[in-house]
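Posting here for the record, re: adenosine-5'-triphosphate.
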Amino acid sequence: MNTSEHISKQYDADLAALRSRVVEMGGVVEEQFRFAVDALSSGRSDLAEQVVANDRRVNELEVEIDDDCAHVIAKRQPAASDLRMVLGVSKMTTDLERIGDKARKIARLSAAVRSSGEADARWLEDTHRTADAARGLLRDALNAFVRGELEGAIAVIRAAQGVGQQVSAISRSLVKRMGENPGQVAVLLDMMAINKAVDRVADHAGNLAEHLIYIIKGTDVRHATLDQIERETLQR
Amino acid sequence: MASKAPKPDLATLPKKAEARALNFFYGAKQALKNISLPVYDRRVTALIGPSGCGKSTFLRCFNRMHDLYPGNRYEGEIRFFPDDLNLLGADVDPIEVRMRLAMVFQKPNPFPKSIFENVAYGLRVRGVNQRSVLVDKVEEALKGAALWNEVKDRLDEQANNLSGGQQQRLCIARALASEPEMLLFDEPTSALDPIATASIEELIHQLKDKVTILIVTHNMQQAARVSDFTAYMYLGDLIEFGWTDDVFFRPKNKQTEDYITGRFG
Ligand SMILES: Nc1ncnc2c1ncn2[C@@H]1O[C@H](COP(=O)(O)OP(=O)(O)OP(=O)(O)O)[C@@H](O)[C@H]1O
Ligand SMILES: [Mg+2]
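Prediction output follows.
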């Protein structure tokens, strides 16, 4: 990221505002996700309801920040790293909004899952652990963005794959339980949907890291393998 | 920044001209420092950089405008293709060069003559006097400059009556009449309003099918819009040269980046 100042102070201020707003949105989304998982772990329905209600705020933030991006483009015609910053922020809001959706989904399903009696301590623990890992990735991605750190971004992309593997293991055991317990398939599917949502949060954190690489380097790594990404980003 | 098609390999692109280790001095003051730059055939190359970096100086080397003042001195060469002529060679006739590389300036500078005579001027200088030939060539040049429809019924009017944008297109028509191989534009739209500017930019786009264009502009967006290649200069040095969409999206050099994004150097 180019940290030198523009001749136009107002332009600096516009870009700084974009950056801080997307970080703000990241904070809101991280909290939504944390509360959703806490609602599941604790069985507190008030927390779940709060997450569902707050999702509107997340959606609003996405629209507002995108609008800010459009205004900066129209007013400033940003080029090079500035243009990539604006486009990258706009892409980030999309992923953050999706993380918000996943939080809402977990919150929505939590009550039914808790009341079914199928949510055993083991599954709750495993789910909580993977969710913490996914949330850690989200935070790391946002921190890397704030500091403009390429290495941090690459670490997030790599770690996101690990979360995916953990979730697959949980899903396999749920599939096994479905076979043993056909009468509970509906709730077991809900549980699986929760695990899937956690997995998607990790994916979106990985996307955030990819957008950061794009902002810093100008290379689109969305469909590249990890090795390609490392090779691409560490050169120059 | 027109197409999304993969960019051709530079090694395969024909060049129209190429500056090689070009130095230029106004007396004791060196204004260009060891510039080596290809100008690709029938492409638009934009020269950008802060005021005083040597853009106009560079442009003027191509048609030997500096020859008009004693004390000016060139070193190095500018090869011109396909004949591989050194434009700066002592044996090269500057008048002849200016037929092949025509310059269009910042401020439209029509002669105090009729529209017709402005365009016919270059032809008359070259000894073309036959009325029917002149009429054809003038029409062709005015069409080439996208001005014909606006002036075809008033060719005998004074050129000064035209609007600024029309005058600039008239100057382009005047340049086109001598069928140049290369057009040199020095900030051709800085005195024009946005509509006239857009029509000149559109014209540049059309002209590049036939001629190679080198354009100096202070308008970053204009360079991004009209050019295929961009060269960034600073204090007489060439800092970066490349495809315009690379230079404007991910410049290699921090100085270029700071300039095009409006930062202090
Ligand atoms: N006739 C001259 N005699 C001496 N120095 C000159 C002359 N013309 C230009 N210079 C100097 O040469 C350098 C390059 O000038 P040039 O006009 O090429 O800059 P430029 O990039 O075209 O600037 P601008 O964007 O302001 O038109 C400047 O330092 C300028 O002061
Ligand atoms: Mg100049």
